[in-house]
């Protein structure tokens, strides 16, 4: 590949198969990140770039935080690894208590995992097993949502609904059905879409179709970030909750992105939407992206069903080598210390309107088809280029913004934004200024 611009110290760019990436395209003009501090990345050409996507929706405290680094360093020096199969260490017990203190008393347990994908697989397995353990043998069906995203595992792609994620994948979970995608009925709408009953009516129709006796659980995100920040109509989650209650169906809420202050509270389902799920999953910002860490929070009734009814010595044949890894637990503790001390769970409440107005000021610029936002997230929907493969124009915009000093995320026809919670208003202004300049020049 003689015409490829190879960063000087790399001999083989094809050695790393980059996930969810246009590998061919990247390797024609590679750009590497070399350092990160606060809100900024440094690229291999020395350029400083403002991180407007919190890494990948995960570095909510920004980068290079010394308190997290110190906590992880000390923990590795004291206890670097402990299994949690049949023996464990004290950190996950204490950390679980701390995390559960943000949730209602009916939540009694945390199951630690390493990613959002693992959290989703774990939650769905728990839900299916719970129904079996309580004698509801026919409750085997899972309901997801079109355009939903819960990770890359087989369970997650089966209940998720982003079409490319199941491309070339003929084997998926059986007994799955889906709610329709959240649609943005009103373009350029600020924040939540107006109240309507479309999601609730769709769930009732699925219950009619399959019978509630066959449905184990519904899994949804409060805000569909990966699909392009699709914002459900007001009241949707609450209505889904009450239908699930009425029909004895578990509700799993995927807060992989929306927990940890992203929507202005520790957990958005509870504090923003007033909904108590049966299972909540999170990951991403839990350890600020420093170390892989995810968690599944369950209502006590689920744990009790396993402990009281399991016919085997081991109650749940599930887990991961790195579940409750000591360094990851230490990282989460340090992250929570910072959130609590600096009021970061609630910071979005101060910034949300400023952020919303700032990104909606891009309305009317070339190729801007829609703008959506909620909490400290946002999406600019870009008109596809009719002469190029889908997503090309957004990728060009992403590159141009990067060159101009702002990193967003190009995802299909959407440029997604999710700045760190420590951002200041002048940084928001800078993001919008760069986006506006680059949109003006976009072809
Ligand atoms: C809502 C949601 N759930 C699950 C996942 C999967 O998380 P991970 O990439 O850590 O496996 C993601 C990732 O973007 C997500 O946005």
Protein model, in words:
The protein is an alpha/beta fold. It folds into two domains: 127 residues, Aspartate Aminotransferase, domain 1 (Alpha-Beta Complex); 274 residues, Aspartate Aminotransferase, domain 2 (3-Layer(aba) Sandwich). Helices cover 35% and strands 16% of the residues. It is built from 14 helices and 15 strands. The chain has a seven-stranded mixed β-sheet with strand order 4-10-9-8-7-5-6, sandwiched between helices. Strands 1-2-3-13 form a four-stranded mixed β-sheet. Strands 11-12-15-14 form a four-stranded antiparallel β-sheet. Helix 6 links the parallel strand 5 and strand 6. The chain is globular, with a radius of gyration of 22 Å. It starts with 22 loop residues before the first helix and ends with a helix. The mean pLDDT is 96. Pyridoxal-5'-phosphate binds next to helix 5.
The tally of helices reads 14
- The radius of gyration is 22 Å
The low-confidence runs, each spanning 5 or more residues with pLDDT under 50, are none
- Let me know the average pLDDT: 96
Name the bound molecules: pyridoxal-5'-phosphate
CATH-derived topology of the largest domain: Aspartate Aminotransferase, domain 2
Number of domains: 2
SSE order: HEEEHHHEHEHEHEHEHEEHHHEEHEEEH
Shape: globular
The level of helicity is 25-40%
Oligomer state equals single chain
CATH class label of the largest domain? Alpha Beta
CATH architecture descriptor text of the largest domain: 3-Layer(aba) Sandwich
How many strands in all? 15
How would you name the CATH homologous superfamily of the largest domain? Type I PLP-dependent aspartate aminotransferase-like (Major domain)
Q: First CA to last CA: what distance? A: 28 Å
**Share in β-strands:** 15-25%
Output the strand order for the largest sheet.
4-10-9-8-7-5-6
**How would you sum up the major sheet?**
7 strands, mixed
């Amino acid at each position: 590949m003689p015409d490829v611009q190879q960063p000087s110290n790399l001999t083989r760019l094809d050695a790393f198969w980059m996930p969810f990436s246009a590998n061919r395209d990247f390797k024609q003009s590679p750009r590497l990140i070399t350092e990160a501090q606060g809100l900024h990345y440094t690229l291999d050409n020395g350029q400083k770039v403002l991180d407007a996507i919190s890494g990948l929706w995960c570095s909510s405290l920004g980068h290079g935080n010394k308190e997290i680094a110190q906590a992880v360093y000390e923990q590795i020096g004291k206890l670097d690894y402990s299994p949690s199969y049949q023996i464990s260490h004290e950190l996950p017990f204490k950390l679980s208590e701390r995390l559960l203190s943000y949730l209602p008393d009916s939540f009694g347990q945390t199951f630690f995992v390493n990613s959002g994908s693992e959290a989703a697989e774990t939650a769905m397995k728990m839900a299916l097993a719970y129904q079996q353990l309580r004698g509801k043998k026919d409750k085997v069906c899972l309901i997801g949502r079109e355009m939903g995203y819960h990770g890359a595992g087989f369970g997650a792609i089966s209940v998720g609904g982003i079409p490319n994620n199941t491309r070339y994948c003929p084997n998926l979970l059986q007994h799955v059905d889906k709610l329709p995608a959240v649609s943005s009925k009103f373009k350029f709408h600020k924040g939540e879409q107006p109240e309507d009953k479309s999601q609730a009516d769709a769930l009732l129709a699925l219950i009619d179709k399959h019978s509630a006796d066959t449905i184990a659980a519904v899994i949804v995100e409060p805000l569909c970030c990966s699909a392009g920040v699709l914002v459900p109509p007001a009241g949707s989650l609450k209505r889904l909750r009450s239908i699930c209650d009425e029909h004895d169906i578990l509700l799993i809420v995927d807060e992989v992105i929306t927990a940890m202050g992203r929507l202005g509270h520790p957990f958005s389902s509870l504090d923003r939407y007033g909904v108590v799920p049966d299972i909540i999953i999170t990951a991403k910002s839990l350890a600020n992206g420093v170390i892989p860490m995810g968690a599944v929070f369950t209502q006590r009734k689920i744990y009790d069903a396993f402990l009281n009814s399991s016919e085997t010595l081991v109650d749940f044949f599930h887990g991961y080598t790195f579940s409750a890894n000591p360094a990851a637990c230490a990282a989460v503790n340090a992250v929570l210390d910072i959130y609590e001390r600096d009021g970061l769970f609630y910071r979005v409440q101060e910034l949300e309107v400023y952020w919303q107005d700032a990104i909606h000021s891009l309305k009317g610029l070339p190729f801007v088809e829609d703008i959506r936002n909620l909490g400290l997230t946002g999406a600019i929907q870009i008109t596809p280029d009719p002469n190029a493969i889908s997503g090309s124009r957004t990728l060009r915009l992403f590159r141009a913004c990067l060159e101009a000093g702002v990193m967003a995320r190009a995802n299909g026809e959407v440029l997604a934004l999710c700045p760190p919670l420590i951002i200041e208003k002048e940084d928001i202004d800078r993001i919008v200024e760069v986006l506006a300049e680059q949109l003006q020049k976009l072809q």
